[in-house]
Amino acid sequence: MKRHTISLFLTLAAFWLLNSGHYSTLMLLLGAASITLVLIISHQMDVVDQESQPLYLTPNILAYYLWLVKEIIKANITVVKHIWLGNESISPTLKTIKISQKTDMGKVIYANSISLTPGTVTIDLVDDEIIVHALLYKDIESLTAGEMDRRVSVLER
Amino acid sequence: MDIVINFSSGLCLFIGSFLCVSGGIGILRFPDFYTRMHAVGVTGTLGAAMILIGLMLHSTDLLVFAKLVMILLLTLLLSPTTSHVLAKAALHNGLMPKLSQNTLEQSSLDLKSKETASSKF
């Protein structure tokens, strides 16, 4: 609980400092007052926890982001190619895929990563299955191959 | 040094504009709602990111740079959320996607299993 409060405080402080750009004493005091108010309110609402401040993700998330950026760039090139090639070249597919993540956080990260990659969109998430619409049948095949699934599962631990 | 920054920033802006125009053309060309959404994905991810990176290279002020980074992060959070909500609303209101012939059988099987899954609620 304490670690999450400190993390939330640091995030809010950085957000305030980078957005304001005023560093006079009065302004800094007002900023500190508003951060304290937000901390008190979020404690009253009981939302400062594992879910809003997922600190356990920190060690592995950077490598995952780098890999995800690479995948997004590759997918963008593919989609743009098929936009210019026209309707005959695409093969829209709807498919239900099993996912191996156990926690809610892992499931949401996986579903969001699929939606973020152009060419695939997560439509629904029911228990341990997701419904994915893809622009190309090839994209579905690479999802069922499970490279992204495996990388998200590594994040969970 | 100045010319390198100007050149790379211009290149990023050019690629970003090209991707955004491609996304727009995709919206006009693709056959149905779901495939059009994939075209919007290009504009929302790499198109916006490239334009913002091009602007970041030009910014001399830390505050301006930080704000551009925040806009980029916000875009990357909003884009999957909105496309998921749109697609889910469309499917739940019975808009069936146009599917290609060779994948049609497989998908209709999936849809049946999906209906049984969602009838649990």
Give a written overview of the molecule.
The complex is a heterodimer of chains A (157) and B (121). Chain A is of the alpha+beta class and 157 residues long. Chain A has 6 helices and 3 strands; from the N terminus they run αααβαββαα. Chain A has helices at 2-20, 25-44, 58-85, 104-116, 137-145, 147-156; strands at residues 93-98, 120-126, 129-134. The two termini of chain A are 19 Å apart. With 121 residues, chain B is mainly alpha-helical. Chain B has one domain. In chain B, 85% of the residues lie in helices and 0% in strands. Chain B has helices at residues 2-29, 33-58, 62-92, 101-118. Chain B is elongated, with a radius of gyration of 20 Å. Chain B starts with a helix and ends with a helix. The model of chain B is unreliable at 116-121 (pLDDT under 50). The chains are: A alpha+beta (157), B mainly alpha (121). The A-B interface holds A 15, 18-19, 21, 72-73, 76, 79-80, 83-84, 86-87, 90-96, 111-112, 115-124, 126-127, 129, 131, 133, 135, 137 and B 19, 22-23, 25-26, 29-32, 34-35, 37-39, 41-42, 45-46, 62-63, 66-67, 70, 76, 79-81, 83-84, 87-88, 91, 97-100, 102-103, 106-107, 110-111, 113-114, 117-118, 120.
